[in-house]
Amino acid sequence: MSEGNSLGVGMNIDIQRSDGRVHSACISGINPGTDSVTVEWFERGDTKGKEIEISAIFALNPNLAAPAEPPAPAPAVAPAPAQSQIPAPKSRVSSAKVAPPEPNKPLSKATPRETRASSAKARPSINPAAHNGDLYVAPAGPLAKAQKEAPASSRRRSNVVKEVDRIKQMREERRAKQLVQMKERAKDDDGTHPHWEFLKMIREFTDQLDFNPISTSDKVEDHQICVCVRKRPLNKKEQNKKDLDVLTLPSKDKVLVHEPKLKVDLTKYLENQLFRFDYAFNEDATNEMVYKFTAKPLVQTIFNRGMATCFAYGQTGSGKTHTMGGNFSGKNQDVTKGIYALAAADVFRQLNRPEHKSKELAVHCSFFEIYSGKVFDLLNKKAKLRVLEDGKQQVQVVGLQERTVKNTDDVLKLIGMGNNVRTSGQTSANQHSSRSHAVFQIILRKRTSGKLHGKFSLIDLAGNERGKDTQSSNRQTRMEGAEINKSLLALKECIRSLGHRTAHVPFRASKLTQVLRDSFIGDNTRTCMIAMVSPGISSCEHTLNTLRYADRVKELGPSGPGEKLEKDHFFPLN
């Protein structure tokens, strides 16, 4: 692999793909053991890589083969003139002359490693003559020159090295994930999986797709109405049942649902349905990443005298409370990881900035729930509240307590206090199902006058349900479900009106929209909807209903009807 001397990490070379295409790629690693190099390149927004033999690289890149030979004779040529100019005794010169030819003989066939080793062995015999006129200073010259030039070249290649390191890290993560997936596939490929036919069809379909999931480095776009989807992983109950994952998120804004179907003759087939939203978060996305793209852009709105609303919508057990309130560990919830706490921390961070300090704003918080059309204060022993309109047609929640908060810790205490008394119940889908809409509001007021400056409403909606799923439930559960669905329908109508900028907004249709009237009226309002979906095959119908609800909201957004993609343009159909 003597030719490998001219190759280095970070170098751009031409490579040939298996389909005959030739394009440029970056060397990310050299493998002396296999006489090959690892190369990587970007294609359709994704990082791809492969190993190529060095002989194939020199065949495609003839310009690299030429400079590989001159360095070999350099050590032999340089000492020659130096020997002829030194007036030394014959015996000493001849002994000095004997040393260099030995490494010089095998230079054409030796590897760079062998060449360096042989030159190192030759040095002890040369050293005695060094005092007689710097006999072998010449070979050291290029080395010293290279050492001087090394810092400059490292500076020039610093960005390349950083990029290679980043690519290497991404590759290692990708390979680790692929290894886990391969192990899971090996378990399921034995035909014992209850849905193995659908599983095989889904894999055949997804193998044709190019995956480019959302990452923290993606740009955050500005929307008046932002609609995104978050997919949760399969839970333990679904894994034990060997439930099948029917959701695929191939890119940062697309969701594919593989709906299992049966023909009349009982032949199984898949109906692949495509949805597009502003953002699509897969099961690997953290609450921090979801917050960055959804609620974080809304924080600035309330400092600009605006009204912001962020709510999580979805089936019972799809992860709404996890996203808004924080991670669950058994029945205990870590409120520091939820969107409530992350938004509060951002508000205090903005408040301490010079441009906002002069406004003399105070932060207040309120936390209430809407259960069966009634409003209860979660920070005041669940006191029942009344929602009324005053003479100026402003909606007032009479008796609602607003607590002044000084820092994020104060906010976390209020969130924990409210979550402990929130109404929850047991359903077929979730042992700890939220049966009410929880509204946490961060309110900015002037310190002196108490005048409202901005309001951020963060809402954890109750789980939506189908009537057929609650037929076996008691009367109270069915009444709860009816009230929940009524308020969710009203919420959708209000957001549609906001998108259409119509004169009339039907906010009186439910208590939820009545309380949120300020978020639908006026020009300086922004809304974000996080649609939570469950990936299991048993929840497929619920998931489709949630995605259709979210799609209906977005296609009537401020930019007009949503773009309908032709499926053939997005992925190949069989």
Structure notes:
By secondary structure, the chain is α+β, with helices and mostly antiparallel strands. The chain has 3 domains: 2-69 and 157-165, SH3 type barrels (Roll); 74-154, no CATH class; 290-552, Kinesin. The protein has 22 helices and 22 strands. The strands form 5 sheets. Strands 5, 9, 10, 13, 14, 15, 16, 17, 20, 21 and 22 form an 11-stranded mixed beta sheet that branches.
Salient structural properties:
globular, ATP-binding, microtubule motor activity, disordered C terminus, 22 strands, Kinesin, eleven-stranded mixed β-sheet, 3 domains, about 575 residues, SH3 type barrels, microtubule, alpha+beta, four-stranded antiparallel β-sheet, single chain
**Low-pLDDT ranges:** 66-72, 76-86, 88-140, 142-146, 556-574
Number of strands: 22
Largest sheet: 11 strands, mixed
Count of domain modules? 3
Report mean pLDDT, rounded to a whole number.
Answer: 76
Return the structural class.
alpha+beta
Radius of gyration: 34 Å
CA-CA gap between termini: 46 Å
Proportion of residues in extended strands: 15-25%
* Number of helical segments with 4 or more residues: 22
Overall geometry comes to globular
Q: What is the fold named in CATH at topology level of the largest domain?
A: Kinesin
Let me know the CATH homologous superfamily of the largest domain: Kinesin motor domain
| Architecture per CATH nomenclature, i.e. the level-2 architecture of the largest domain | 3-Layer(aba) Sandwich
Helix content: 25-40%
CATH level 1 class label of the largest domain: Alpha Beta
